[in-house]
Write a structure and sequence with these properties.
By secondary structure, the chain is mainly β. It is built from 1 helix and 11 strands. It has one domain. Helix content is 12%, strand content 35%.
């Protein structure tokens, strides 16, 4: 079995098993449908943009889109769309991240559109319904 297939299967099992034991957390959307949340540490912040975008932002492929950024130890951004793998941007330049918005509590999960995320003390794991996803923590940033 190809390594990519094994990795996808393991990520799916991990996400399903973790989500089965997590509390679902609802985070309100803005008037234009965007949802913003941070991890409790404040080191990772995410913005969900619905299909069609907003009056000021249009996802590259029309959306929906989940974009998450990690501040420390180095600034990285991961963008997950409805098709294909997540894109890891290792040097996104100067960005604003992690304003005072809703926190996705450790042990909780959030979902909107095709995306779901699980927050833990180890980091933030997010997946799309297409099986692609990413993991962000202070120690690592991976996308698939």
């Amino acid at each position: 079995m190809p390594a990519r297939t094994v990795a996808a299967a393991l990520l799916s099992i991990f996400t399903w098993t973790s989500a089965a034991h997590a509390a679902s957390q609802t985070i309100p959307a803005s008037a234009e449908g965007q949802v913003e949340f941070n991890t409790p540490s404040g080191n990772i912040g995410c913005i969900y943009t619905p299909k069609g975008g907003t009056s000021t932002y249009q996802p590259q492929d029309g959306g929906p889109e989940l974009s998450c950024s990690r501040v420390e130890p180095s600034y990285v951004t991961v963008i997950l769309g409805p098709k294909g793998p997540a894109t890891l941007i290792k040097n996104p330049g100067e960005q604003g991240c992690c304003s005072d918005v809703n926190k996705l509590g450790y042990g909780n999960n959030w979902s909107k559109g095709p995306f779901s995320c699980q927050s833990s003390t180890k980091g933030l794991s997010c997946t799309g319904s297409n099986g692609h996803g990413f993991f962000l923590s202070k120690a690592k940033a991976t996308a698939k």
